[in-house]
Specification:
The structure holds two protein chains of two kinds. Chain A is an alpha+beta fold. Chain A has twelve helices and nine strands. Chain B is elongated and about 130 Å long. Helix content of chain B is about 30%, strand content about 25%. Classes of the chains: A alpha+beta, B alpha+beta.
Chain lengths: ~350, ~650
Amino acid sequence: MKDEITNLRAQVVAQIEASSDLAEIENIRANYLGKNGKLTKLVKRINEVPKEEKKEVGLLINETKNTILAILSQQKNDLKETSRIWFDPTIPGKKPQTGSLHLMTQAIEEVANIFTKIGFVRMRYPEVEWDYFAFEALNFDHDHPARDEWETFFVDASAHPKLGKMLLTPHTSNGQVREMLRVKTPPVRMINIAKCYRRQSDASHYPMFHQFEGLVVDEGISIAHLKGTVDYFMTAFYGEDRQARLRPYNFPFTEPSFEIDISCDICSGRGCKVCKEGWLELGGAGMVHPNVLRHGGIDPVKYSGFAFGWGVERVMMMKPGLGINDLRTIYSTDLRYLKQF
Amino acid sequence: MNIKITYSWLLEHLKTKAGPQKIAEVLSLCGPSVERMERRGKDWVYDIEVTTNRVDAMSVFGIAREAAAILPMFGIKAKAKPLKLKRQETVKSYPDFTIKNDPKLIHRIMGVVIEDIQNWKSPDWMKQRLLASGIRSLNSVVDITNYVMTEIGHPTHVFDFDKIRTGGFVIREAKKGEKIISLEGKEYSLPGGDIVIARADGEIIDLPGIIGTKNSVVSENTKRVLFFLDNNDPVRIRRTSMSLGIRTVAATLNEKGVDPYLGETAILRGIELFSEVCGANKIRKIIDIFPKKSVMTKVKVEKEFIELRLGVGLSKKEISKILNPLELATKWRGNVLEVTPPSFRINDIRIPEDVVEEVARIYGYHNLPSKLMAGELPQKPLGMPFEFEHGVKQILKELGGNEVYTESLVRQNMAGKRALALANPLGEDTGYIRTSLKPSLIKAVKGNVGAFEKYHLFEMANVHLPRPAGLARTGSLPEEKQLLAGIFYGYDWRVAKGVVETLFEELGIKVDVRVLNDGKYEVNKAITLSVEEKKIGQLGVILGTELIYYEFEADVLRAHYSVVKRYKPISKYPAQIEDITFVLPQKTLINEFIDSVKTVKFVEKVELGTIYKNAYTFRVWYQNPKKTLDNNEVRGIRERILLRVKNKFGGVIKD
């Protein structure tokens, strides 16, 4: 019996060591230690053992059982360790290919949202336009420099008998009289964001650019309303810590006319290389000239209004942190630039 | 336009205790804007922007007048100091010298012959002031003309009197092609209609208001000069100056219409300097030809009108106190104010709104309240495209597209056959208004080859299509059509088409496709997309390339897209799904095949899976909305499919 036990132990140990998965180990356990296991059967035969050997055999059986149990759990752990699949959760992810919206689209959307929130209606007017809506109706003198061939692009097409030459609109203000004629009776509260064209090209000018034009006409509209609207836009677009100021200026279609400045974010208004004594020019504005209201069929005695027209690129480039200093960069089609926004 | 002047020069014309910084600050807020100020020794140089309507402020004296009106509003005493100038002619006018004017061309001519120029060297103070103003010192005689212009604001000129004495002056229009040689020695051919001064024999001896000519210029041997001033037609000055590209300070002032009444001050100040600097004492009698005096007009404005525009209340006294230092005379009749502008503002102060501007700016825009509009809101017109446009862009972005903005102005071979041309382009590259986005997008794609393996660029922009000849004559603007276009580089056809299909799915537009062979795309590698039989655009492999291009009319897409998506109830009974592989004859159009199979009853959906040679695997969803299909029923449907495939397409199931 002693030999039987010793053989059995050697057999089990060999089997356990050769086992390669947990199911096999469980089989081995059942085979030897289970209800009808080989070792269990040996235990049942303990009475066959002579009396004097009983104690010794009993100890041997116990020792064998413990040994098997110990090796079993050891092997179980070893197997668990090796069967675990190596996994690196810090590995770089695979990104889906996403695209990008152009910087201009994002800026236009932001500007539009700011104004539509306070009741401005977004409109759109022709890019190829008649002189009448771009200049004549806006009170430009016939000899105004903007009307000559050095500043505005004219189209090689026959002129309109009443509306004059065909041109590429040099500003979004061409929508002013068109909007008044559309609405007929104030209130007018319009925002027009569109492409414009001027005959110039350098770091701060591009022949094609975008403007946004605001026009408000109603009874009792004053400079205070223009100031309020400008302040609201500044805070919404640039944040609380930038100041705006109005400076006297001159445009044919507004009277009084202003230039709007914003405090420089680089020097916080103290004056630096980039700005003009602490201020950056944002764009023009003014109270709608009575002649313009008349051309729009609106009585300048009963109604008054204000308008502003600013470059989208310029306004956007003045956002701190953007880091684009050359207007021409904006219209690059280089994907290395496009993918950044 | 900008003018540079020093603080010390300004103080010669302005009595105030305000420091240089304070003056800069208040001028910017209420008057001409001080763009920069710079230290120069003990002095300061201001760089001031003056708006084109305020040519009267383009001088040291003009700025002093503005400062004198503005500073008191900030509680600082200030007063302009007008020059005390006396006529000091010593001898009568030169006997045989004649001037024949054309009052259409020159509004006022003033001149004086100064006979004994002694000193040709400018004193240091004059040189330095001119230098600070950005003007190079040449000699005392020329420097005096520039000094007077900067100080007083009226351009002046000086001739070598002995070079021009005998011929006299004839003011006339130039004929096209007449030549001049400028005092710098450059030859110009005149465009015609320019104001010129000629001798009796016809030779041009000056391009007045713009630049002097070589044949009448002073030199250091000159003993006698004609100090001269011409107040001319601003429109002609601009035309000549711009077309010849001669942008002198004199020209930029003259093209804005200088006050002719300033002439006298300028001439007298000049004479003063000639005797002081050049030691000249033999001053001939001043010639003054001033045929048409300006007409002064009064502007009437109600007190309430001013207050309503400003949004604040003001007393009559406050209003007058603001206007008077600007030399605007005021007279109240009840609550109506009568304003008489001075000669140097008559082109600028014409309507009540002009008076409002003067009151508002001097009162200070910074002192006005800031408030948003109350009152009724305008009605939002229906059918505006903005949300749709942004939605489309957003979808394409999500599908991996990169939006670009390309130029609307292109060279002729990129514009399309009937494209409109510009009459005055900046260059050949931007001479035409495009009729398609395709060439621009191809160009954009090519610029990125090598940097990325595959990409998809898209753009939404207007193109301009000329009207047919008849309509153009009746005066219609070109058709402005917004296009949505995109281009794929390195994309497999099915992947690119999948992007376009997803776009339409997202927009809720159901499109039909048909093979397109129009010669612009590779043979059999393009499709026309249509909605309800109406063509809406194309997708295809551009001829001679592997680029896949699509173009749609934005308005047509918008007309068909569904703002609100309709809910389709989800069936309670699950679908049976099965993959079937068919062997199909060559040139079978799979889209047509799927459409056909889908019409078999209880076939809910069919999708193309893998393709191996001519074996196409499809995933088929069988579904009855009213019950769960059992295997027998599915078998029945499958048999109907097989029959359809066999009869219509000649295809068989693969074993």
